[in-house]
Amino acid sequence: MDTLDHPAREALPIGHAVWQAVRADAVRVAAQEETLTAFLHETVLAHDRFADALWALLVRKLACRIMPAERLGRPVADAMADDPAIVASAAADLAAILARDPAADSALTPFLYFKGFHALQWHRIAHWLWGKGRHDLAHFLQSRVSEAFAVDIHPAVPVGRGVFIDHGTGVVIGETAVIGNDVSILQNVTLGGTGKEHGDRHPKVKDGVLLAAGAKVLGNITLGARSKIGAGSVVLKDVPPCATVAGVPAKVVGWCRDDAAPALTMDMSLQQADYSI
C-alpha cells in the first residue's frame, strides 16, 4: 500500500517517541517470530513515519469488497493532511494505553491489535468528515466501525486527546456527547439519551474521568473532572468533580483525595476506606 499522497505533518514529539518504540518492538518481534516478519514489514517497518503507518493500518482494518482500500484511503489521507491534530491525538491515545493498560506489553501490541484504539482513530476521521458536512460518508464509517470493532460512536462527538478505550466491545456514545482529555472508558459503557427527545441529550465527560465496565450514563448531564463511575452503575444526574459514584441509580460513595485522575491511575476500587467521604 502506498503512503499518504498528502502527508500529514508528523505528530508532536510524543508521536516520534511512540513511533520509535513501535518500530523497535517490530524489529525485535520480527527477529523472534519468523511467521510475522512479512506482516510486520508491511504494517510497520516499511513506513518511516507514524502518520503513514497509522493511515495504512486504519485502511487495512476497515477495507471491504464494496469499499476497497484504494477508495477508502482517500478520505483518511485528506483528513490527516487537513488536521494534523488527528495524528497527534492518535499518538497521545497510544501513549495513554501504554501508561494505563498492563496488557500492553509493548508499544507494538496496541498499535496493531487493540480494537478500542483502532475504533477511536477511525472515529477521529469520521468526526473530521462530519465537520466538513460529509455526513453520509461519516455515517458509513460509523457503521463499518461498529460492525468491525463493536464500538459505536456517533461521528458528531468531539473527543479529546489521551483517551483510552479498553477492549471497546459494546461501547456506545450518542450524538451530542462530549469526551474530554485523558478519559478512560471500559467495555460496555453507554453514554446515551433518556428517551425520544431531540437536541442536546447526551452526557458531557470532563477531563480525567474513569468510566468502569458496564457503566450507563444517560441524559444531558455532566461528569465532573476526575470523577469515577463504578462498574455497572446507572448515572442519571450530574456527578461533581472528583466524586466516585456507584449503584443503580448511582450515588456518591467517595471523593478523590489527591490530584491523581482516576482515568490515569485506573483504580477501579470503590472501598470507602480509600476516600474521604
From TrEMBL:
InterPro entries named in the record: Hexapep (IPR001451), Hexapep_transf_CS (IPR018357), LbH_SAT (IPR045304), Ser_AcTrfase_N (IPR010493), Ser_AcTrfase_N_sf (IPR042122), Ser_O-AcTrfase (IPR005881), Serine_acetyltransferase (IPR053376), Trimer_LpxA-like_sf (IPR011004)
Domain Serine acetyltransferase N-terminal: 18-122
Enzyme class: transferase
A GO cellular component entry from the record: cytoplasm
Catalytic activity field: L-serine + acetyl-CoA = O-acetyl-L-serine + CoA
Keyword Repeat: yes
Gene Ontology biological process terms, A to Z: cysteine biosynthetic process from serine
PROSITE patterns found in the cross-reference section: HEXAPEP_TRANSFERASES (PS00101)
SMART domains in the record: SATase_N
One Pfam family per UniProt: Hexapep
CDD domains for this protein: LbH_SAT (cd03354)
Domain of life: Bacteria
Example of a GO MF term: serine O-acetyltransferase activity
Keywords: Acyltransferase, Amino-acid biosynthesis, Plasmid, Repeat, Transferase
Keyword Protein biosynthesis: no
Pathway: Amino-acid biosynthesis; L-cysteine biosynthesis; L-cysteine from L-serine: step 1/2
EC numbers, comma separated: 2.3.1.30
UniProt xrefs under NCBIfam families: cysE, EPS_EpsC
Alphabetical list of PANTHER family matching this protein: SERINE ACETYLTRANSFERASE
Family, per entry: Belongs to the transferase hexapeptide repeat family.
Name under which the protein is recorded: Serine acetyltransferase
Organism (species): Azospirillum thermophilum
